[in-house]
Design a protein that fits this description.
This protein has helices spanning about 10-20, 30-45, 65-80, 110-125, 140, 145-155, 160, 165-170, 180-195, 205-220, 255-265, 270-280, 285-295, 300-315, 320-335, 355-360, 365-375, and strands at about 30, 50-55, 80-85, 135, 200-205, 225-230, 340-345, 350-355, 380, 385, 390-395, 400-405, 405-410. It has about 425 residues and is α/β, with parallel strands linked by helices.
């Protein structure tokens, strides 16, 4: 039985404050009593907790959904704890099988390094990267000899590994599971052994992997980490997990007007969840806003505009946020053209196929995407809807091309 940590009245007050902050938005803490003991011990001895976040740099851009766990890291950091960002440059070569129905293609060294560099630039908008400790798990995993790998593999049974839904489902459905995929959670867990971390963060879909670190720390005679899981944020469709591949995301590096406009399409019932998980706004203010919406003193549209403003301010600054609000009001509420339309100096043919024009302007990424946007009524020229995908456009100086509700370009000849 663990001994009770003795603290002064002032330390107890600090403990209660930190516990209140750190429990914000959390789904589960395993085990909760161990976390409270570690936190109290940290305060009593003035020793920061070591907080691990493992990152598998499989894609270079992050969206609002990814920031949920980063905000939790920020809270730990602001309370004086040491955050450990673990880049899975070695495990990334295997690919996280979590939630996958098939073996994932491994990343190259170049892909991992390039993605990690982009991550750091984006993370710095949320956490203080100068105070963060960054590790690459190739530092220890590449040095494991084969006997050590066999020893690591002996720490877990196949039956336990098949408790994971993705592995279990693939096994039942006769889909192949490569042996090396079993090593992914083992190696992720071994990272916690190497780093001696106190707490590991992850989304609820990472619960198995995060608990693996606790299991292996015990197997190697270390103090066991606490697993802290956070919810997965639904995307703009209000149903599925936010994902770039599903198109239901808000990217933190997107243009301010795009971030604000997308924020205004967040389902009303998810607004408070976005505020709680993806912003720094105090919970007391969020609760007051929620009550205001419920009793009719706050309009949902106004709350959503605050959310959009907050996101743009966080990632582009106050001026950009104020400009995005003005743009939204001009275009969407007054149905007028914005004042700050980007001008494009056109040097190509003056007669051009509308589909090709949209792609060359960078307003659509492919011919197929451009065709679909036209067929769905999402393209306008000088505020007139384009209905013919075969339209040949005669370009004129000052012509305004609009795609969707937020993309505008002015042709300059």
């Amino acid at each position: 039985m663990e001994e009770q940590v003795q603290v002064t009245a002032e330390q107890q007050k600090e403990f209660e404050h930190q516990l209140h902050v750190l429990k914000r938005g959390v789904v589960d803490i395993v085990p909760a009593d161990d976390f409270e003991r570690k936190l109290k011990q940290s305060i009593a001895t003035n020793t920061p907790l070591k907080i691990k976040l493992g990152l598998d740099p499989s894609a270079p851009d992050i969206h609002i959904g990814h920031t949920v766990v980063l905000h939790k890291m920020r809270q730990f950091q602001e309370l004086g704890h040491q955050i450990q960002l673990l880049i899975g440059d070695f495990t990334g070569k295997i690919g996280d099988p979590t939630g996958k129905s098939e073996t994932r293609k491994p990343l190259t060294d170049e892909q991992v390094k390039e993605n990690a560099k982009t991550y750091f630039e984006q993370f710095s908008k949320i956490i203080d990267m100068d105070k963060a400790k960054v590790y690459y798990n190739s530092e220890w995993l590449e040095k494991l000899t084969f006997p050590k790998v066999i020893e690591l593999a002996s720490k877990l049974t196949v039956a336990r590994m098949l408790e994971r839904d993705d592995f279990s489902n693939r096994y039942k459905n006769g889909q192949p599971i490569s042996i090396h995929e079993f090593f992914y959670p083992l190696m992720q867990g071994y990272d916690s052994v190497a780093l001696d971390c106190d707490v590991e963060l992850g989304g609820t879909d990472q619960t198995f992997n995060v608990l693996m670190g606790r299991h292996l720390q015990e197997e190697y005679g270390k103090n066991k980490q606490v697993a802290m899981t956070l919810p997965l944020l639904e995307g703009l469709d209000g149903e599925r997990k936010m994902s770039k591949s599903l198109g239901n995301y808000i990217g933190i590096d997107e243009e301010p007007n795009e971030i604000f406009g997308k924020s205004m399409s967040i389902p009303d019932e998810l607004m408070m969840k976005y505020f709680e998980l993806a912003t720094k706004i105090p919970m007391e203010e969020i609760q007051a806003m929620k009550e205001g919406i419920e009793n009719g003193t706050v309009h949902p549209r106004d709350a959503k505009m605050k959310l959009g403003y907050t996101f743009v301010e966080m990632y582009h600054g106050k001026e950009a946020a104020e400009a995005a609000v003005r743009h939204f009001k001009t275009v969407f509420q007054q149905h007028a053209l914005p004042d700050d339309i980007e001008e494009v100096k056109w040097t190509g043919d003056k007669e051009i196929w509308i589909v090709k024009l949209l792609v060359e302007l960078g307003m659509q990424s492919s011919n197929g995407e451009a065709r679909r946007m036209i067929q769905n009524g999402g393209v306008k020229i000088n505020q007139e809807k384009v209905e013919d995908v075969q339209l040949q456009v005669s370009l004129e100086d000052g012509m305004i091309i609009q795609v969707g509700k937020r993309k505008f370009k002015k042709i300059v000849l």
